[in-house]
Specification:
The protein is an alpha/beta fold and 909 residues long. The chain folds into five domains: 114 residues; 237 residues, Periplasmic binding protein-like II (D-Maltodextrin-Binding Protein, domain 2, 3-Layer(aba) Sandwich), CATH 3.40.190; 120 residues, 2-Layer Sandwich (Beta-Lactamase), CATH 3.30.450; 155 residues, 2-Layer Sandwich (Alpha-Beta Plaits); 241 residues, TIM Barrel, CATH 3.20.20. The chain is 47% helix and 22% strand. It has 31 helices and 34 strands. Strands 1, 5, 6, 7, 8, 9, 10, 11, 12 and 13 form a ten-stranded mixed sheet that branches. It has an eight-stranded mixed β-barrel with strand order 27-28-29-30-31-32-33-34, surrounded by five helices. Helix 2 crosses helix 9 and helix 25 runs parallel beside helix 26. The protein is elongated, with a radius of gyration of 41 Å. GO terms for molecular function: cyclic-guanylate-specific phosphodiesterase activity.
């Protein structure tokens, strides 16, 4: 019984002792985020935008204040990093425009997509959600393919809308401003399907009482939910990522999540694990406790066994003496016999304990092996340490059961690791640390480097003095490898394994801080989107890997090569002061693309390179990257397959472009666009046969040749194109009401308008509403439209033809012109460009012009000559039988009122 009491007392003591152990890892990235936050101007207010009607993520509460998961999370993340926030809610489309235009700093909630990453930078993902198909109760759907041929209500500019459009299903979309409006239209029976995000959908059903609706668990596009900032606003991005990490570490993120979203989404696997962390900790502590119980019981058994052996020796001696004095000590013999029986009973009891301890020892050895750990004990009085046999066999060392700690450390560890452990032990004994906790390197029996975690805590004697330190050793090699892998992922691109944007910026920052000279190059692959679209993303990734390999093969220690994302590579030329040498690097890189980078032995891949010098152009990392970006776009605009050094004129040019873009947006918003109409004249009779509608700005003398490319690049050409189409059809309707014998009006169509997937429906609807026939208009395209996507372009043109609309091929004779196009394009006429007319209407070249027109006629195509300004050109065009003529020889572009008066006009020839 005494042994049991000791065991129970010691077990209770060890439970109390080891329940204090904790295992944690610090997140070093938070420190970096705080450093980056300090770079944001003191007192600066971060303007945060989001959707005004997107509950429970963002909306206005009953008092008119911004509320929701996004709002509360962004507020908490910014305040955690010492930043103030001002919230501006509006329509989703307007908020995205404001971020692009720099009117706000960030959007508090946005789903990530590769297309969106071209316009914004995203924080690390903080949650994942998906969309769903909502229908009325009796209507069910299990797959998005069942939407083929159906009408689906979606939220305008929503990620689910973008995803469904990219599925190439025959779906008619009805876009509305909010999720609530989409669900309402399905609830009242106007439409059968609404495709929206799952969480807002459930929230609005509960909030607005659309009880006749159901979610079908189709699970559309599981995607990362992040915060978004403007491109290159890295200080704010780091601050937000740091704030999110702190919120998650402190549990505040989970509180916000449970408050707004917990009702609508299931907990993740790791969240479930987190709830049972206490149980795992208790099991580990129990295992450690039982190990120590085994060690203590082993000692006690050894003591009792020794006592028993001594008792047996005494008994044997007494038996010999009793045999000599048998008659005299009969009573004593009986007493000794009774003592023997008592000893045997004690012996049997000890044997029972030994068996139980051996069973217990085996169980805990299995448990220790399962946790990949070993135990140790350090005696501070004799400076010896006990290591379990598992440790000795694993690491191939031959030591006594108890060995001097100096011998053990010298045998196991190298100098730096040994000194690290000794300091850990000393600090603990001096009370500077609550426990021994150290990660050190060690070699196993195969001489392979391993990582172990040494943990321990002291045991006080009855005088409260530290005599013994007990602990465990854990093999953390795999954990360390995972840490290194995660660190590698954080600083390297997953496709090419090159350093990523973060690592590049740190390297550049280090160069600048050391007052070095060099250059930043931004390399962008020309027409990479076309490669992805035609050959597929798998081949696109192979191409990116090939580019990375070729760049690394340059093998110059001055070059630091990274991938920035998409089709962009950033190259740092370190410690180089000569601009000519930097230019030589650019030439070497360009030569790689000229000689070796070819797609399927058919098409060469070229690149455009922008170069900026530091510290000559700037000492700021962000500014240098922007400079390289500006120079790269200048190289692209100069014909691609080129390189350019940054200069201030490029910035001025960019500012001019931004000013033009702003002017265009204002003109669209304030309806300051107008149309002029230039007549097309029959080459033989001089009669007006049609008009071309030409877009102009009412109050700005900016040439279309300048503002149209800007509109295409800024993405506003779709809105402008729809405005032109609408105005032309309305004007034709007005002329018809006046009884004017109208002539066809040609509308110019940009290649970028192919992204307007609803243009055909829009055009057909306009014609019907205004009672205008398809023969009253004509669509003019250029051959560059085929560079976007040949298959989509042919579908678009065939759809136009199916409506009965004629198509003209504009600017023939420039750019990518080829007579071979005319054999398969569904066009009705070609328009000869002014540059071609100026060259081939000269007397010595007139035969070429005659051949072109003759070939067109053989293909049943009409021919229009543009830019005709003198009589001699007109006479020669009549000679080669050109059908129609357009140019200042007959008329400049006319205002609506002037064009109205010449529909039946005949010009004198």
């Amino acid at each position: 019984m005494k042994i049991k009491k000791v065991i129970l007392l010691f077990a209770f003591f060890n439970i109390a002792l080891f329940s204090t152990f904790r295992y944690s890892y610090a997140d070093a990235s938070i420190g970096l985020a705080i450093k980056k936050t300090a770079a944001i101007s003191a007192g600066e207010i971060i303007i945060v935008g989001d959707d005004i009607d997107y509950p429970p993520y963002s909306f206005l509460d009953k008092k008119g204040n911004p509320a929701g998961f996004n709002i509360e999370l962004a507020q908490a993340a910014l305040e955690t990093m010492g930043l103030k926030a001002e919230f501006r809610l509006g329509s989703w489309k307007e908020v995205r425009r404001q971020l692009t235009a720099g009117e706000i700093h960030m959007i508090s909630g946005m789903f990530y997509s590769p297309e969106r990453e071209k316009a914004y930078d995203f924080t690390t993902r903080h949650t994942v959600t998906s969309g769903d198909i909502f229908t009325r109760e009796k209507k069910k759907i299990s797959d998005i393919k069942e939407l083929e041929g159906q009408t689906v209500v979606v939220q305008e500019d929503d990620i689910i809308y973008e995803h469904l459009v990219n599925q190439n299903l025959n779906i008619a979309f009805v876009s509305v401003p909010t999720v609530a409006e989409a669900l309402r239209l399905v609830s009242v029976g106007k439409y059968d399907y609404a495709a929206v995000l799952k969480v807002p959908g459930h929230y609005i059903i509960d909030d607005l009482g659309f009880w006749n609706l159901r979610a079908n668990d189709v699970d559309i596009l599981q995607n990362d939910y992040c915060m978004a900032v403007r491109k290159y606003n890295d200080d704010l991005l780091f601050a937000l990522n740091g704030g999110l990490k702190i919120l998650k570490a402190t549990g505040q993120y989970q509180e916000i999540y449970d408050k707004w979203l917990g009702v609508y989404e299931d907990k993740s696997f790791w969240e479930e694990v987190k709830e049972y962390a206490w149980l795992i900790g208790f099991i580990m502590t129990s295992l450690i406790l039982l190990i120590f119980v085994v060690l203590i019981l082993r000692r006690m058994v050894a003591i009792r066994t020794k006592e028993l052996e001594e008792a047996n020796r005494t008994l044997n001696k007494n038996q010999k003496e009793l045999n000599a004095y048998n008659q005299e000590v009969t009573m004593a013999y009986q007493q000794l016999t009774a003592s023997e029986e008592e000893l045997r009973a004690q012996y049997d009891e000890i044997q029972s304990y030994i068996e139980k301890l051996e069973n217990l020892k085996q169980k805990y050895q299995i448990a220790i092996q399962g946790t990949n750990s070993v135990v140790w004990e350090y005696d501070l009085e004799d400076k010896t340490i006990y290591l379990s046999e598992e440790f000795k066999s694993t690491y191939g060392v031959k030591l006594n059961e108890k060995e001097k700690i100096e011998i053990v450390f010298n045998e196991l560890f190298r100098v730096e690791e040994k000194e690290k452990l000794i300091k850990e032990f000393i600090d603990y004994k001096e009370g500077k640390k609550e426990e021994i906790y150290s990660q050190v390197k060690i070699r196993d029996k195969d001489n392979q480097q391993q990582w172990i975690l040494v943990r321990g805590k002291g045991v006080l004697d009855e005088n409260r003095e530290l005599k013994v330190i007990n602990g465990i050793i854990l093999d953390i090699t795999k954990l360390k490898e995972q840490e290194e892998y995660i660190k590698h992922l954080a600083y390297h691109d997953p496709v090419t394994n090159l350093p990523n944007r973060i690592m590049f910026m740190e390297e550049l920052e280090r160069e600048i801080s050391e007052n070095q000279c060099g250059a930043v190059m931004l390399l962008d692959l020309d027409n990479f989107k076309g490669v992805n679209d035609t050959l597929g993303h798998v081949y696109g990734d192979k191409l990116l890997k090939r580019v990375a390999e070729e760049l690394l093969n340059i093998k110059d220690e001055k070059l630091f090569i990274s991938r920035f994302g998409g089709d962009e590579f950033q190259i740092l030329v370190k410690r180089e002061t000569e601009a000519t040498e930097i230019e030589n690097y650019a030439k070497r890189i360009s030569k790689i693309f000229e000689e070796r980078l070819m797609i399927k032995e058919e098409t060469y891949v070229s690149c455009s390179i922008g170069i900026t010098l530091y510290p000559f152009d700037s000492n700021d990392v962000t500014q240098l990257i922007m400079n390289a970006d500006i120079a790269m776009y200048d190289a692209k605009n100069s014909g691609k397959s080129n390189y350019k050094f940054f200069n201030q004129k490029m910035t001025d040019k960019l500012k001019e472009k931004i000013q033009i873009e702003t002017t265009l947006r204002e003109a669209i918003k304030k309806e300051e666009l107008k149309l002029l109409y230039q007549p097309q004249v029959c080459g033989l009779t001089g009669k007006v046969v049609g008009f071309e509608a030409l877009l102009r700005l009412k109050f700005h003398p900016i040439s279309p040749a300048i503002f149209i490319p800007v509109a295409e690049e800024a993405g506003i050409i779709i809105d402008m194109g729809r405005w032109v189409t609408k105005e032309v059809i309305k004007q034709i309707a007005v002329w018809k009401e006046k009884g004017i014998n109208t002539k066809p009006v040609a509308i110019n169509f940009s290649a970028k308008q192919l992204n307007d997937f609803k243009y055909i429906d829009f055009l057909e609807d306009l014609l019907k509403k205004n009672n205008v026939t398809p023969k009253d208009i004509e669509i003019e395209i250029t051959e560059s439209i085929f560079l976007e996507n040949k298959q989509e372009t042919m579908i678009f043109l065939n759809n136009l033809k199916a409506l009965g609309i004629k198509i003209a091929l504009d600017d023939f004779g420039t750019g990518y012109s080829s007579l071979s196009y005319l054999t398969f394009l569904p066009v009705d006429k070609i328009k000869l460009d002014k540059s071609l007319n100026d060259k081939f209407l000269q007397l010595e070249n007139i035969a070429v012009m005659e051949s072109i027109i003759s070939l067109a006629h053989s293909l049943n195509l009409k021919v229009v000559a543009e830019g005709i300004e003198d009589i001699e050109q007109h006479e020669r065009l009549k000679l080669v039988k050109c059908d129609y003529i357009q140019g200042y020889l007959f008329s400049k572009p006319l205002e609506v009122e002037e064009a109205e008066n010449i529909h039946d006009y005949r010009f004198l020839l």
